[in-house]
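[Automated response] Your request has been received and processed.

Submitted sequence:
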Amino acid sequence: MEKGIIFDMDGTLWDSSENVARSWDKVIQKEAGGLRRITREDIKRVMGHTMTEIAQMLFPMLDLKEAVELTVTVKRKHQPNPEVKEIYDRNYEIYLELYKNLKETMKKQENRR
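Generated structure:
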């Protein structure tokens, strides 16, 4: 019987927060008139939270309804939008950062066969 591990690579094997921040920032600049900049640190801080929590954390200057609407717009336009997706894809390898000890961990898994 074959045994294996399945990974969700984006966010599990490598840190994509810089690319996500850049693409979210592009949407914010266009959709919200540059309300604020979105940074890698912002994205890391909100990962794992609900959309409502993300809205409150990223846009405390807006009332909750506006913040959620903006967050949903950003989320919706983040990947499907060809312009934003192009930025994300173009920069993907540049800002790709493998998590610490990933290579060693993968080698250990390979040797367990």
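Summary generated for your ticket: DSSP finds seven helices and two strands in the chain. The helical segments are 9-12, 17-31, 40-46, 51-58, 64-78, 82-91, 102-111.
If you did not submit this request, please reply to this message.
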